[in-house]
C-alpha cells in the first residue's frame, strides 16, 4: 500500500532520499542504515546509497534482500523501481552463493550455480571440476578476489585446533543486554557460521567487555591488537579488573616489553615496524608465537593495510573486530569484510543513549571569521595549503576561551591535529598537552591526574582519536581535524560518551567560516548525523564577542 506521507523516495540509480522533517524520519533512518550507506546529509534531505557491500553486510546480520525490500516499501512514498528491486535481489542473494567448506582436512569452494562456478574458474584460470580445492594458505586471498568479483564467500570451513586457556568474568560482573547479544551473535552457538566478524558499538558502550565475554566463551589463548600503548594497558587493566586472569597470564608485546603469554596484547605500530626502509616487518612472527585460538582487532577501522596480509594468512584463527564505526577512509571496508569477517552486530548510538548507557551529547559547530594577514595568506595559498591555514586560524583561540568560560566547572578535552596549534593553545592557557611524542610515563601521569580531577583541562592530539579511557570528560573542543574523516569525528565524540552522573556531554567543533574547512566539516559529521546527532551551527562575532545562531546572523 503506497502512502505518500512516507519519508522515503527510492530512485533507480540505487540512491534513496529521506525527508528529515517527516514524522517517520528517525525510524526510517534506523531502518535504512541497516542496509544502505549515508552519502549526504544536508538540512532537509538525506541521501543514501544501496551498495553490494552494504547489502552483504546486512545479509550477514540477518537482513535478507527480501527484508531490505520490505523495509523500503514500508517507508517509500511511491512504488519501488523494478530495477532497484532486481538489483537488490541479485546482489543480496549473492551472499552465501559461494561457500568455503572443509572436508577430510581439505578446503573446497562450492557453488550450486554452475555458471557462477565456471566464471570463477575462468577468472582464476583453473581447469573445470565440480569443486575448487583451496590451499589453506590462500584462504583469505581467495575471499578477497571473489569479493571483488561480486561473490562474497560464506566461509563455513571452521577453525583449527588451538591451545585452551580458561578465562572467566568475575561473578560480580553482569553483561548488559546488548553486550550479551553481541557476544552471542559472534559466537553463533559455536557453529562454523560464527567465530569471525565485526562488532559495532558506540564509544563508551563497553566494546572491550564484549571482547572479554567472547574470550570467556571460547576459553582459548588470545592475541589482542590495539592502537597504541595506552590502549594496550587499558586492555590489560580491564582484563585484570573484570576477569579471574592474573598478571602472569598477560603479556605485553610492545616497544618496551616483548612478553608472550596465553593472553598477549600488542599494538599495530609494533607490528608494522620494518627492518629499515622497505625491509621486512620484523614483528609479524608474533602471530605464530603461540597457537592462538582468537585474534582481537581493537578499533578495526584503524587496522593498517600491511596487517591485512598477515590476516589473510591466519584464516584458521577466530577473528574479532571491534569498532564504533565501520568506516575506513581508505576504502578497505571490503578487505575487513573478507579477512576479519562480516558485520555481526550493530546498534544505533541513539538507542543506547535513550537507555542511559552512553551520555546524551549536544553537538555544536562554531564558525569563526579569519581576517587580516591570515585571510590574505589563505587567499593566495595553493589549494593544497588552504585547509591547514584555515584549521590553524588564530581567531579560534578566542572561541576556545569563550567555551572554557561557559564550561568552567567541566572536565574538558581540547583536541586537534596540528601540534604547533596545540602548543600555542597550551602556552596561552597554561594547560598540559599530550601528543605522539609525549613519553608513556608522562601520558599516564596526566591521564591519571585528569581522572582524579587534579587537571580539569587537557590538550590532546590525534592520540585522543581512540582508546583513551577518561570517563569523567564531559566536554570536547575540536580545533582541527583530519580533512573529512568521518571515523575521526565519531571517535572524538566518543571520548565524552561514557555514562556520567548527569549523563550529558558537549561537543564543539570550531571551523573557519568562508573556507574549505566548512566543506570538510560537513563530511566529517556525516556518520554522526546518520546516527541521529544534530549539529547546532553558531557564528562567532569577534567584535562583539557574542555567539548567535548562524541563521539569525544572516537575517
Question: Which helices and strands, and how do they pair?
Answer:
Blueprint: E1 8-10, E2 15-19, H1 25-32, E3 37-40, E4 45-49, H2 52-60, H3 65-75, H4 82-92, E5 98-103, E6 106-111, H5 114-124, E7 132-134, H6 139-149, E8 153-155, H7 177-187, E9 196-200, H8 207-218, E10 222-226, H9 229-242, E11 250-253, E12 263-267, H10 268-271, E13 294-297, H11 305-313, E14 318-323, H12 333-340, E15 343-346, H13 349-354, E16 360-368, H14 372-380, H15 383-391, H16 396-406, E17 412-415, H17 419-429, E18 433-434, H18 440-452, E19 457-460, E20 475-478, H19 486-494, E21 504-512, H20 516-524, H21 526-530, E22 535-541, E23 546-549, H22 550-553
Parallel strand pairs: 5-8, 9-14, 9-15, 10-12, 10-13, 11-12, 13-14, 16-21, 16-22, 17-19, 17-20, 18-19, 20-21
Antiparallel strand pairs: 1-2, 2-4, 3-4, 5-6, 6-7, 22-23
Helix pairs in contact: 3-4, 6-12, 7-8, 14-15
CA-based shape: globular
Radius of gyration: 25 Å
Cross-sheet strand order for the largest sheet: 18-19-17-20-21-16-22-23
Summed up, the domain count is: 4
Per CATH, the class of the largest domain reads: Alpha Beta
- The average pLDDT value, as a whole number, equals 89
Largest sheet: 8 strands, mixed
Low-confidence stretches: 548-555
Strand composition percent: 15-25%
What's the helical proportion of residues? Answer: 25-40%
